[in-house]
């Protein structure tokens, strides 16, 4: 018997129930992982609130990122063994002390990276990787607008983009977060609470605007994000922390400069195991090179996840948040 957070019906933080569950033996292709650290992400809030459809029948265990130790392996699984340190991102069901998970969704964690750091960086870092290296290839001539630059993905992506030679303009909601973003890769920071980010982007770039906007905010930054793009620029909508982007006439992309728009997800880039391993390896190598510095994450006990999600929703967190079983 282990403890887990389950959601029996959509709602606020009070919908997160501290339950006792049974975890059986791994079936074909599975292993059992004992969690050491669990990542907290905005998608967890979306599933709890009902903004996203439930990923499984009620009651379900939320959470999509974890790091731990393999404690049981099914017959036929040859790539992993008991005692291996592993992590994953994108497999729903991490808010628990232990779980079963398909072996092909796990990646090895280097000895040089601690459990909390790995849980803080795996989903967010692999997200940053596909955004910067796949969705739009950032390079020395690229100017980027990254919303929520002091968030978990933003801090990693801003550093990574700067290491690739890009110029990063970040938006934040406070002076404290502005200072943090400037220390982590942003060349310019805009406080959207006190400044018009569209006007400031135009001013910073001398009217040229940016090549790509990475937008995880959604409702509050649309359609302003489009007004920050140069002709034929790319708007990458990869989250909606302020609410869903409202339905819009696709003709707006033409009127604002023959723009491109995409709504990607991490799973779309790591569905194949070879891509998953390549993405994780590139992330860990970039951390090892010193191009990305991962701040010590904020931590909450798994049983206090309601407080952790509330802090995340109210934008009182900086960087990453990790739950400890």
From TrEMBL:
EC number: 1.6.5.5
Top-level EC class: oxidoreductase
CDD domains, sorted: QOR2
Record Pfam families: ADH_N, ADH_zinc_N
GO molecular function terms attached to this record: quinone reductase (NADPH) activity
Annotated SMART domains: PKS_ER (SM00829)
Alphabetical list of InterPro entries matching this protein: ADH-like_C, ADH-like_N, ER, GroES-like_sf, NAD(P)-bd_dom_sf, QOR-like
Record carries keyword ATP-binding: no
UniProt xrefs under NCBIfam families: PRK10754.1
Protein name: NADPH2:quinone reductase
Taxonomic classification: Bacteria, Pseudomonadati, Pseudomonadota, Alphaproteobacteria, Hyphomicrobiales
